[in-house]
Amino acid sequence: MTHDLKFWNRSPERDDSRRDFLARLGFALAASAVASCSRAPVQKAIPFLNKPEEVTPGVASWYATTCAGCAAACPLLVKTRDGRPIKIEGNAESVRFGGGTCAAGQATVLSLYDPNRLRGPLWHGEPASWSEIDARVKPQVAAASRRGIVLLSGTIVSPSTRALIAEWSARFPRFRHVVYDAVSFSALREATHACFGVAAVPHYRFDRAKTVVGIEADFLGTWLSPVEFTRQYADRRREGLSSGGVQHHQFESGVSLTGSNADRRVAIAASEQGAVALALLHRIAADARVAEPLPRVEVAIDDRAIDRAADDLWRDRGRSLVVCGSDDPSTQVVVHAINTLLGNIGVTVDLDAPSLQRQGDDAAVEELIESMNRGDVQVLMTYGVNPLYDFPDAERFARGMESVALSISFADRADETANASHAVCPDHHFLEAWGDAEPIAGSFSLAQPTVAPLFDTRAAQDSLLEWLGKPPDFYSYVREFWRRELFPRQDRSRTFDEFWDRALHDGVYDDSAPRVERRYALAEGWRAAAGAIAADHQRAVSARGPDRYELRLHETVAIRDGRHANNPWLQELPDPVTKLTWGNSIAIAPSVARSIGVATGDVVRVVAGDRSCELPAYVQPGQSPSTVSIALGYGRDGAGKVGNGIGANAFPFVSASAARRAYLRTGVALQRTGRHRELALTQTHHSIEGRSIIRSITLDELLNERSEPAPERPSLWPEREGGEHRWGMAVDLNTCTGCSACVTACQAENNVPVVGPDEVTRSREMHWIRIDRYYDGADDDPGVSFQPMMCQHCQNAPCETVCPVLATVHSSDGINQQIYNRCIGTRYCENNCPYKVRRFNWFQYAGNDRFDFTMNDPLERMVLNPDVVVRSRGVMEKCSLCVQRIQAEKLSAKQEGRTLEDGRIKTACQQACPASAIVFGDLNDPNSEVARLRRSRRHYHVLDELGTRPNVGYLMRVKNAPRGEPEPL
Amino acid sequence: MTRWRAAVAAGATACVLVAGFVCRELARVGVHQGYAPAQPIAFSHKLHAGDSHVPCLYCHFGARTSRHAGIPPSAVCMNCHGLLQKQSEDIEKLKELVAERRPIAWIKVHNLPDFVYFNHSQHLLAAIDCQSCHGHVERMTRVEQQSPLTMGWCIDCHRMRGGDPNAPAANLDCGKCHY
User: Fold this and answer.
1) In B, residues 9-48, which contact A (CB 8 Å cutoff)?
2) Complex-level ipTM
3) How many CB atoms sit inside 10 A of residue A401's CB?
């Protein structure tokens, strides 16, 4: 006893005795028990004062509008929940665009909640009120009627806005409207005007073309109207299965999304675009028996590649198409000549209803700078453009702006140009504004607000109306325009209100007036253009030398010309080809990388004339050895908290000579810096090592060989009891282009966090769906394949067997469920998943200053989908097959007393896919589309040999063998 | 020695009791059964739903179509109170707020955790009475949370098919509510 007491009070002089410890422990336990009995914080529920009829809390409303993410102006449906737009979807009512979108379009909803948007107008950088701004601007505008007012805008696809600008022209004789596209299509417009007398970009119809030849035109990724073109391209590949195959030849310097989808891709030097076009013209002219001689140039590529392309074009004449992304008018003239000789004009090259998506005029911009320097411009308004960032000689533009008496920017943020302007009059986000669009002549769509303006912003059109002395009500203006211009041209609706309501409901309206088919004769002068190409080519050849490269500048699918730089979803979207996130790089051919001794991540200095920049190298298989490529749109310093300082700005490399901008430089030197920067890549291994993960089949095999379906392998697992449904998915690799719209759509739908470049470097990105890209073959001419990869929802799921807490289990309808509130984060499931599709929350990504991207600011969190949980630290997550959408559709079928038809449930990835490559449905229903595809000979499962029996399957890509020669095995 | 034993026994009993109390309290963390906060306006369900037989869905109309039953907009109160002569302090307060165009900040009684999805309209469709989960609200002067709203409680009802053996089986998949 005494001994024990001694033990208890072993060290009376020390104050941290065992007794004290126990006392503290007891207190802590009691305190925590008492604390846990206390109530959770009081939550308020604040109802409407007077509920609007069409809004029910918890029920989504949908509005048809038009995307302003780029000038392609895709029609959209916007999902709003409790007054907040939370998801963008394509408008399936549109015949031309279908229901697809692109990644950038999907992400525009996040830009609405961008905390770097201006809260109201600024005057000399200080907050001001609209009445103050108007009081200062109006006298200047009135005074400027003598000296000149210029509106510098991007391409304006809105016909009502164009009408409004025309009113300015009528009112002020010295008013000029200059259209400036950061990535210019001026050469193509110029050439179309020179050849056919139409000053527009033609509307291309890839769906009508059996053979497509692309020369440095990334029409599936960034060129002109990618969503529409992807849809057409997928349609023609699908049709090709029954019509004997289609052919796509691509000649390009870097590896674009389009090139990686081509049946035959040929790497060319960037300066050889004209030479390739001319070589094609030679062959086609010979086939068409054009007698006159044309200048010849030597092209440094295999003649047979040109021959094959020309043969395919000629064989499919009248159903073929050559498109070219060149910024040289002569090259575009030659391409027009080829299309004319092939009889493609009016079939695949539509000039009667041309595209209005790019109208930039390089010469007019040059002229503007000169007149600014002369002091001829009193008022400069910049709308939808940011020349101080993306004009190649931004300093020259800035100097010109200094001599302008009043510069006004309509930018939504204090960007590079807005910072140098006297007044910033922030425009609405397009989801807050009225508007309309006519992306292709005769094809209209309406834009309506989906939310009241979040800030004290004003539509740019309202500002223009106000300063013109008209009521600032662009809604009435659009309505009036439609009443005046479009209503009389149709006979479907009797009253205007009926017409307007229908157009507003559908979102799209196609002009039903009969088209006047004109005959287009090619103007003379194309022979001169051929001569100009030959001379240019000589110059480019002479600029070549040892250690001299060409530089090609291109847009990326995500950031485009830099306008989306502050969008975290897009910064973290892996580039479809390089798989690079958060920045740009210099793409270098493997042979060049070896010879100059750089590896991926080594920082290289690029020097072109007096311009230089430092960027990490990216060794790109398939890159032309004579050319390096850099993506535009990075290196912003006026974008905001996310986009500033990411990558380097490549716009200064754009050459602006003789009133046209060219996105290529010759005589570029590369210097090693000896530094290394880890790139935030989501894929670092590029070969499937000969495994049959991505399978393809030739058309001949598909049509002619009969083979029995492989018998199902035996399994040690007991058969699963079937439920009412068995949800499954089929992904058609034949039409998937890898465009990554699905990745962003999934991110938006499922509240997938953005983790930032450091975490991506540690392979901790959270995307539920990724697009795997693999190379095969030689690294100077690799085959490229894409495969969307998400949870395969295995019937015998390896993840389910290893979870110690049953946090991942199978549902009765075939879904592999992840139960976040059960998960304790052992990550056993992630390790046991053969598809590597599970994502672990290493951190608390919501409400964490360290991850200040999409879920930190309360404003950003408005984009979250309230039907999906925001996961917390320490839990696993993965694709749920959009279970919330399944449940919602099941419920609405039940509520409306109907059976759940096939195709009603669309997962977010499926809905966004412009190629309709993803099909979701019930595998238990033999008549469902997904069950039909599963019976296809092209259907297979990835890693079938493991016996996981996935509910997600793939359809093999069909290889279009070159005609007339057997496909080498 | 006996006293020593008695002391040990008493101590052990005390420990067991304390442990039992702690465990019971811990198991009730986040369970707010019996929660009946005072509301900014002393609205009586007994008077409205009970004595006056106003149907639940007249005010909580959201339950028909939405996951949220919702609290009625003040305009719904005014449907009747705009006409009724009867006055009280709280009705005055309501009318004042409506005149000032200020919504009423009610205190939420039934709170489900964020990680569970619950849809009122779905349960209405399965003909589950409001009272099954909310208790006899029509007898409550001040609303009180009667059910524990725990997962075990949900599952019990799903297993019992809402008490109707002829009803279609309620789904027990985790992913039915957790996503």
Assistant:
1) 21-22, 25-26, 28-30, 32, 35, 37
2) 0.89
3) 21
